[in-house]
Amino acid sequence: MQAETTAQEDSGANAPRYDLRQIDCDPNFWYPVAWSRKVRPGKAFAARYAGQPIALIRPEYGPVYALEDRCAHRQVPLSKGVVDDKGCVKCCYHGWAFNQQGHCVTVPYLNREDVGRPVRAFPCREKSGLIFIFPGDPALADSVPVPDIAQVGNPEYKTRQFNPRLKCHYTFMHENLMDMNHQFLHRRQMGSITARFLGQDRGENFLEARYSFARTAGNQPLAEALIFGRHHDLEGREQPVEEVVSIRTTYPYQTLQIHDKDGDLIMDLWVCYVPLGETQQITQAFGLLSVKKPKWAFLLDLAWPALGLFTHRIFEEDREIVEMEQAAWRELGGDHNIEVFPVVRNLRTLLATHGVPNRYAQPLAATAQATAG
Taking the domain 34-143, which CATH number applies? Predict the structure, then answer.
């Protein structure tokens, strides 16, 4: 499908057929489940993906691997176990040992190999300070690339990590970042600032929207200037486009990039919203924010704590909103949102067509009839 730059929205024929909040992430992608620094050599670490407990094991030598976090014997978490000198994880209960393929290699009190049942092993990769698993069909793992992440490793940028947990479906987070028209929410942090929609591009697996920002009144916070550039109140005159903010969902990941008036990348955000519970209404976000270093790099180092506090406050306002949206969905028994912005309507279609309706999902027509009754 070719990209397009209009604000046209999908026709009704392509609209979601199920309540978007009942559509799970497609498991046939690489999802981060832990920061590399959390999984120490010779240790096991407990993680989760969509209700599935995951044990991450890092041998003293060799790459990290991932197993179902349940011993095949009595379902005790393998993450509570011991990593032996062969790199196998031994259950803390009876000492059953499992290798990186999930095979039970030892049931110690029987003095025999291949007696116990195996556990599920997940394809596992490590990149940019994150540990990824492939929770879908393992035969597809090698054909799906692990994503490139912000500017991690680029010495021209300074990068920070964040990993908030949110009580909402992952789709709320995609919508929140994609729709920059909600700056009124952040008025206490950013003052009087407005977003101007510049257009969108669409493809088979992505949607990108572009904006510029203008200050309509008041002084600009220093931390905001570091992110969006220096904007002044022009006393009613239109703010020129000096920076372009591009938000892109390339399923299932999301990015936000800021380019200055010369086209240079000055900020690069990458984020993945990982579902935790079975119904995917609790989300663990893994994000990395890279900021281009100025000529005098120490200035960014000095401002780094203030920038972190600023972005934290902005996110906490977003968190409160998306969790209220999720609460309303529960109270109303479904998605009653009236969406008028074509970009978000297109985003909802993208998420719905690439996701997987869960076992609770009902067709929208049936949902509407039940609500009316």
Answer: 2.102.10.10
Q: Where are the alpha helices (DSSP H) in the chain?
A: 170-178, 187-190, 222-228, 297-332, 342-354, 364-372
Pair of tokens at residue 43? 């240790």
Structural domain boundaries in the chain: 34-143, 157-365
For the stretch 292-307, pLDDT in tens is: 988 777 777 787 787 8
3-state secondary structure 165-189: EECCCHHHHHHHHHCHHHHHHHHHH
- Burial string for 278-288 (b: 16+ CB within 10 Å, else e) reads ebbbbbbbbbb
Distance CA 160, CA 112 (A): 49
pTM to 2 decimal places:
0.88
Provide CATH code, domain 157-365: 3.90.380.10
> 143-180: per-residue pLDDT in tens?
999 999 999 989 999 999 999 999 999 999 999 999 98
DSSP letter (8 states) at residue 92: T
